[in-house]
């Protein structure tokens, strides 16, 4: 009986012995009887019945196809995740840039008894006497999502924000540059604030101020459910922020964005002062 032959429909090479794949182009030659006439190879001898490939070859082909499918799934998933992250960052930047998310800019920057305020309409800066502080209210407790462990006898916990000392600071201790980290203050009894003053960054000295991350946008949340965004100046000294004029018993500051220029990754605030009345 003459040896069986198969002609590859892909490249036209005739194969002796009816192999599973074409020796010239690598195309599959054998198909099941249900797909006869629709593949790339047609037997030219040895009768009309096809001989199925060995079980080992079938398992190898199946494994190759599964690996290829898995690789494609991983590639598409990674591409989708990357594109989603890009869209999120782009939308966040667009929201901040266009004002789709309402942001209140800090009203003033106070240093050494004077106040520098920005006139948004004219784009100029004026200097006046600092406003009367009124009654300063101290929180009964403060908490933070994270803070750096003490180093060299220096602590970085949230109590530093209300100790009246600009040479101490709260430095968040999470991975990254502090976006999403928060500090929260509790009041008993409830309070109604007229003004909040914030000292941005680590103001112990110029090197630490420029070296640590400074906060650009804070989300201010209140126990009554209200919230707003505040954009801080990248300056030393105290910045005056206008709060919601309603009673509450806690207030939280969450870091939304930071200024990019810093040597270390830890975002910092040096001091927070509250002025108003107890209810």
Q: Can you walk through the features of this model?
A:
With 279 residues, the chain is an alpha+beta fold. It folds into 3 domains: 53 residues, no CATH class; 37 residues; 171 residues, Jelly Rolls (Sandwich), CATH 2.60.120.260. 18% of the residues lie in helices and 35% in strands. It contains 2 helices and 16 strands. The strands form 2 sheets. Strands 4, 5, 6, 7, 8, 9, 10, 11, 12, 13, 14, 15 and 16 form a 13-stranded mixed sheet that branches. Strands 2-1-3 form a 3-stranded antiparallel sheet, with no helix packed on it. A hairpin with a 4-residue loop joins strand 6 and strand 7. The protein is elongated, with a radius of gyration of 35 Å.
Properties at a glance:
279 residues, 13-stranded mixed beta sheet, Jelly Rolls, alpha+beta, 2 helices, 3-stranded antiparallel beta sheet
Low-confidence stretches: 32-48, 88-101, 111-132
Overall geometry comes to elongated
Separation of the first and last Cα atoms:
107 Å
Number of strands: 16
CATH class of the largest domain: Mainly Beta
The fold-level CATH name of the largest domain is: Jelly Rolls
- Number of separate helices: 2
CATH superfamily of the largest domain: Galactose-binding domain-like
Mean pLDDT: 77
Number of individual domains: 3
């Amino acid at each position: 009986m003459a040896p069986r032959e198969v002609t590859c429909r892909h490249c036209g090479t005739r194969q002796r012995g009816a192999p599973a794949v074409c020796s010239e182009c690598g195309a599959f030659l054998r198909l099941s009887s249900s797909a006869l006439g629709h593949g790339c190879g047609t037997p030219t001898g040895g009768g009309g019945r096809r001989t199925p490939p060995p079980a080992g070859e079938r398992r190898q082909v199946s494994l190759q196809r599964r690996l290829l499918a898995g690789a494609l799934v991983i590639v598409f998933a990674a591409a989708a995740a990357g594109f989603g992250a890009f869209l999120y960052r782009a939308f966040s930047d667009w929201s901040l840039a266009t004002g789709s998310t309402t942001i209140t800019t800090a009203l003033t920057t106070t240093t050494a008894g004077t106040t520098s305020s920005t006139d948004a309409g004219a784009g100029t800066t004026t200097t006046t006497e600092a406003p009367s502080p009124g009654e300063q209210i101290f929180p009964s407790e403060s908490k933070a999502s994270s803070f750096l462990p003490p180093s060299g006898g220096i602590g970085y916990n949230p109590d530093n924000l209300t100790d009246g000392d600009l040479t101490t600071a709260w430095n968040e201790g999470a991975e990254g540059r502090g976006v999403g980290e928060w500090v929260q203050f509790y009041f008993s009894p409830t309070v109604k604030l007229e003004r909040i003053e914030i000292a941005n960054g680590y103001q112990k000295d110029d090197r630490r101020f420029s070296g640590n991350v400074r906060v650009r946008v804070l989300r201010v949340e209140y126990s009554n459910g209200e919230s707003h965004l505040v954009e801080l100046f990248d300056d030393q000294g105290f910045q005056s922020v206008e709060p919601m004029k309603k009673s509450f018993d806690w207030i939280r500051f969450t870091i939304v964005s930071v200024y990019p220029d810093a040597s270390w990754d830890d975002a910092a605030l040096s001091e927070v002062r509250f002025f108003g009345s107890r209810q």
